[in-house]
Automatic annotation (TrEMBL):
Alphabetical list of InterPro entries matching this protein: CarboxyPept-like_regulatory (IPR008969)
GO molecular function (one): carboxypeptidase activity
Protein's name in the database: Carboxypeptidase-like regulatory domain-containing protein
Transmembrane segments: 20-40
Superkingdom: Bacteria
Pfam families: CarbopepD_reg_2
Alphabetic keyword roster: Carboxypeptidase, Hydrolase, Membrane, Protease, Transmembrane, Transmembrane helix
Signal peptide stretch: none
């Protein structure tokens, strides 16, 4: 006898649900002609709006097309928008985009390279779920062998050192400032330059810069005689100081011709890192996996601390790019 009551309630509930369903159908029939959207349609549009707000991202590395090496601190921007990011010291970047940016293009640029534009949609398809590789061509500036004639004498320029022009083909030319001075001693690193003849005139020195970072860098150039295979006496009355702007990478050539330096025998080419905002580290200078035969690398911390010879190991690469341009009399 107790079974009839729940059956009666279930049927009653069913009628109530049918009445509610009929009311909803009537409400839909009334609202549609006057332009009021049903709740289901509104929910669909809200969900679509939420998905439209989702960001898409492009990740990748910017590389030198000639050497396949990373280009640090390159700029990646959306054409037509004030939206850009900067790659890190290893050329890697992450750029967040709006879905509507798929139809736009990205402009990739770096000092010393030809800027390029890439379609966003094409980059996304090419990269897939991985990272994109973007290549820039360097602006080639060839350094040719020169002859200098003075007082009926002929001179031939010859570059002597290690990893000459490797890593990148771009060069920056600097002339030391007559007024710049060092506020204090800095870290010093350099290499031994072997003079192939008895006497030569020093025209310029060059070193490879991996990246100057986000701040200007002040560098002093020093030349030392060699004694007991270590730097000995400074050949310059004061260091030749240059200031390098932020985001520079490439070969830095310092003109020393006005100093009229004549070298007789091997000497040590040393750069002193005088920047107070960034310290000299393994990412400051161009380093190479292989050490040329005969290369000796010197280092000492700031101040008059003893010189040390740094040796290359598999885990700690110490081969740096440095060379001098010498004038030999013909």
């Amino acid at each position: 006898m107790q079974l009839t009551k729940p059956v009666h309630l279930s049927l009653s509930g069913l009628f109530r649900h049918r009445e509610l369903w009929a009311f909803n159908c009537l409400l839909l029939f009334v609202l549609m002609p006057i332009g009021i959207k049903p709740i289901l349609q509104l929910n669909h549009e809200l969900n679509a709006g939420l998905f439209q707000d989702d960001k898409i991202s492009i990740k990748g590395t910017i590389l030198d097309k000639a050497t396949n090496t990373p280009i640090p601190f390159a700029s990646v921007s959306v054409v037509g928008r004030e939206h850009h990011v900067q790659a890190n010291g290893k050329g890697y970047f992450t750029l967040l985009l709006r879905p509507e940016d798929r139809i736009h293009a990205l402009r990739v640029s770096s000092l010393g390279y030809v800027s390029r534009e890439y379609k966003v949609e094409a980059l996304l398809e090419k990269a897939g779920a991985g990272d994109a590789k973007i290549f820039l061509e360097p602006k080639h500036r060839s350094l040719k062998e020169v002859e200098i004639t003075a007082k009926a004498q002929k001179w031939k320029a010859q570059r002597v050192g290690y990893h000459i022009d490797e890593g990148t083909s771009f060069h920056y030319q600097f002339t030391p400032s007559d007024t710049a001075s060092a506020e204090g001693p800095g870290q010093e690193i350099g290499t031994r330059i072997k003079v192939k003849r008895k006497q030569a005139v020093l025209q310029s020195v060059s070193f490879g810069l991996a990246g100057s970072g986000n701040a200007a860098v002040k560098v002093g150039v020093k030349l030392y005689s060699i004694k007991d295979n270590l730097p000995h006496q400074n050949l310059l009355p004061k260091p030749a100081i240059i200031s390098i702007k932020p985001h520079h990478t490439g070969w830095i050539t310092v003109d020393l011709e006005k100093h009229n330096i004549t070298v007789e025998g091997d000497f040590a080419l040393i750069i002193e890192w005088l920047s107070e905002t960034t310290r000299l580290n393994s990412g400051s200078l161009m380093t190479f996996a292989t050490t040329p035969k005969g290369q000796v690398t010197y280092y000492r911390a700031a101040g008059a601390k003893p010189w040390r010879i740094r040796k290359s190991t598999l885990l700690d690469v110490k081969s740096i790019g440095m060379y001098a341009t010498l004038l030999y009399q013909r």
